[in-house]
Amino acid sequence: MVSNPTVQTPKRRAVLAGTGSFLPEKTLTNEDLTKIVDTNDEWITTRTGIKTRHVVSEGETTATMAAEAARRALADAGMEPEELELIILATITPEMVFPSTACFVQDMIGAKNAWAFDLSAACSGFVYGLSIAQQFVSSSQYKNAMVIGAETLTRITNYEDRASCILFGDGAGAAIVKSANEGSHGIMYSTSFSDGSGWTSLNCTAYGSRNPASKPLEDPSMVYMNINGREVYQTAVRRIVELVNECLEKCELSIDDIAMFIPHQMNARIIESVGKRLKFSDDRIFINIDKFGNTSAASIPIALDDCRSQGLLKTGDIILLVAFGGGLTWGANVLQI
Ligand code: UT7
Question: Are 26 and 166 in a shared domain?
Fold first, then answer.
């Protein structure tokens, strides 16, 4: 497979200017799930690392959460909404078929000078989005861009399938990158991959052009996410290890140069297995899946914001964002804070 790497020459850089996140107030604990399906806290904790997840309430949607995360990222960056030039919103649970969720968010936050579009790459949506933002911003075509990952996965979760319903939660995270001439700071490298032949491993097949709403579904569960967990698990570990090795090689870095590894929060066991193979020390692997579950495209920006809020990152730190998900898709970004 050929990579499409973007090693930045140091003229302009897409520098991280702010982050924000939003999690709905309502939670769904492992204990709550035992009342819905045949499961238990011990199984969920040992197999996934998840303890609880946040769940949208009536009136909360992908766009409302994304807009709040966006406002918080703007405040963190010290920017007015009118200054934003581009909004890329990654989601597999959009507000509606069209218009894009990004356009709803643009309106909600008053970013009237930004153009906005959605990106569909499942759990890799945020790293794909950051890679696109990097191109526009480091080329100076735009002065800034906001990348948002936002999901209401609980609205496409099958609460009759105990193997998948324990995994997913809702939430949104956002990051703003600005064009700057700041030496080595900013996004150093992005890499992205797809393998459409693996689509059967992770999907939600109802109500696209293949199975339109105008025709009865073959199986009512087609409106929900369908995952082949074991298959995804094994491929994810392999691909994430490959991604990390590629990033280190292209950026001429060693594992010890990475201050924080912030992977897609898919399953704590997957992350730990990757960490062990790559010999990352535990204090440099960020895991918050215990609090939020798997939030697909939202998981990395939520984790990045959480990591910054906990004061775990300092100026000059090099961080590595890595994702794997439906498509199949996978990708990574290396950036210096
Ligand atoms: O972000 C992208 C989307 N995420 C994924 O695709 C997730 C990737 N995969 C995973 O995280 C893991 O594969 C799962 C958490 C989904 C499943 O863990 P596993 O270790 O692969 O378990 P398994 O599916 O092999 O099931 C092991 C056993 C089975 O029982 P038997 O056949 O061994 O008797 C299942 O029936 O665990 C049983 N089981 C459960 N038991 C209690 C499955 N789900 C549950 C449950 N509670 N919720």
Answer: yes
